[in-house]
Amino acid sequence: MGYIEKRGKSSWRISAKTTTASGATVYVPMTIHMDPALPESVQRRDAQRELDLLEKRLNQSAQTAWTLRDWSEEWITKLLRPDCSPVTISNYRYLLDSRILPALGDYRLDELTPAILTDWLIRLRADPRRTTRKPETQLQRARRESEERALAPRAKLQKPLSAKTALNYYGCLSTLLAAAVRMGYLEHNPMDRVQRPRKKRTHRAALTEEDAVRLIRLLDTLPEDRRCFRLAVLLALLCGLRLGEVVALRYSDISWTAGTIDISRAVKYTSATGTFTADPKTDSAVRQITLPPAMLDILRENQNQDAADEIDMSAEDELAGRRLRYHRSGHIIHNRFGQPVNKDTPSKWFRAFAEENGFPSITFHDLRHAHASILVAHNVDIAAVAARMGHSDATVTLSTYTHPFAAHDQAAARILDQLIRPTPPAQDPPEDQPAAIAPADPAGAAAPAADPSTAAS
User: Fold this and answer.
1) pLDDT at residue 64, as a whole number
2) Residue 182, CB-side half-sphere exposure with 13 Å CA sphere
3) Do both 369 and 222 map to the same domain?
4) How far apart, in whole angstroms, are the C-alpha atoms of residue 298 and residue 218?
5) Which of 18, 217, 267, 432 has its CA 20 to 30 A from that of 424?
6) Residues 113, 126 share a domain
């Protein structure tokens, strides 16, 4: 805050407080002259107005002197961290640190023009993809064959970024600068005049209803030590759950009498925090859904088997004189010692299972897509489907999570075919051929003729 000093009959000195780019606090003086005929109270009021204007100009100058790097830290610390999940912050941090700040971080906010940002976006889209894969020389052991198959092909890493990835960077920078506009640090968002990357809609492999039935039959043949993986797949396919929601489920979330299950937690991961349990992805993802009766039976059988496994393993440990290995955590999906599994374990297991059984393009998340598509195909109310999926807007369910089945496309073609080849009208029988005789009444009596006066209108 500045101060005002009277220097003469009509002369005033005002000093405005501001902060330099290096963080030092300085006072900027300014001398103003008033009309000598004005009373001192009026002169002081006008001097205060000039001081306010000077401080405003200095603050705007200091704010626009911030670099994009400085503002990004301010944005994350003061605007994102109080309301966003650690996963969201981690995703934004990766986008900033990987390709935005190395190229644009030293620019002042007021220096970022549409031309500079367009050039950055062009270079970004030509940038080859990156990987966190460690070279073989840094590994403690050689990769297994299954681990090698799970890695992205090296040829794919040489390709430029996809339009979807470029759109993520575009959205991050646009959101960052829009926040600066809202805070008064910029007059307008220069990203508004940068052409938005156009994402091509790719064909996503869809699990048909027939495929889903075959998948369930294959799951029934799994050995006993894979029953938790079977449960994870069924919960995603029959209940439409996300992977993190599946791993976080506990038996205490099930209402055995009502046949419902509460979805109120999700397992998440960031490189900074590791694995943690938090609220689901959105507010609408906190939901209660009805379980298929067969799914409820499977869950009850699995819970009973968990109790039997604990008894058997504990008896073995006591007989061998070692500490007990089985400790039930209450999680539905767990390892052989009753403890929760890593968030990505069911997904990695399903990837190998799908490849071995003729579903090479189906991922664990595609099971959730199949859940929505099958329900919509059977004319289930879209609002009910969106509620099961945890979507606040049914248009997201229709546009993203439902896929047309070939059988329905063929049925549509048959309906339209009748426009070209309509059903021919019935032909009168030839004169030498008697008309068809109506079948006799089973009781042997002829049906009475209808009375025209009692016919329904």
Assistant:
1) 55
2) 8
3) yes
4) 15
5) 432
6) yes
Domain residues for the domain of 15 are: 3-64
| Amino acid, single-letter form, for residue 446 | A
Beta-carbon count within 10 A of 258 CB: 11
Nearest to 220 by CA among 298, 331, 336: 298
306: which residues sit within 8 A by CB, 6+ positions away?
Answer: 328, 334, 338
Tokens of 77: 């610390």
What amino acid occupies position 132?
T
CATH number, domain containing residue 302: 1.10.443.10
Phi-psi region of 188 (alpha: psi -120 to 50; beta: other; left: phi over 0): beta
Listed residue (14, 72, 64, 80) closest to 43, CA to CA? 14
Tokens, residue 222:
């799994």
* Residue 238: inside a domain: yes
List the end-to-end C-alpha distance of the chain, in Å, as a whole number: 89
Is residue 336 a contact partner of residue 225, using CB atoms and an 8 Å limit? yes
Residues contacting residue 262 through CB under 8 Å, at least 6 positions apart: 253, 255, 287, 288
Contact 413, 420 (CB under 8 A): no
165 and 75 co-located in one domain: yes
- DSSP secondary structure letter of residue 111: G
Backbone angles phi, psi at 269, to 5 degrees: -150, 140
Are residues 122 and 56 located together in one domain of the fold?
no
- Outline where DSSP puts E strands in 363-445: none
> How far is it, in rounded angstroms, from Cα 365 to Cα 87?
18
The tokens for 45 are: 């009021």
Matching residue, tokens 């879209």: 382
**Closest among 24, 25, 28 to 55, alpha carbons compared:** 28
Please give the average pLDDT of every successive group of 10 residues along the chain, which has 457 residues: 83 81 75 87 87 77 75 93 90 94 92 94 86 70 70 64 91 96 88 90 79 94 92 95 95 95 93 88 91 94 93 90 90 93 92 90 92 89 92 83 71 81 64 49 45 42
Question: At residue 333, what is the residue type?
Answer: I
Phi-psi sector, 379: left (phi>0), alpha (psi -120 to 50), beta:
left
Q: 336 and 217 in one domain?
A: yes
Amino acid letter for position 75: W
- Using CB atoms within 10 Å of the CB of residue 32, give its burial: 0 to 12 exposed, 13 to 18 middle, 19+ buried: middle
Whether residue 432 lies inside any domain: the answer is no
Domain count, the chain: 3
Tell me which H or E stretch contains 93. helix 86-95
Packing angle between helix 227-239 and helix 345-356, nearest 10 degrees? 90
Task: Give the pLDDT of residue 256.
Answer: 95
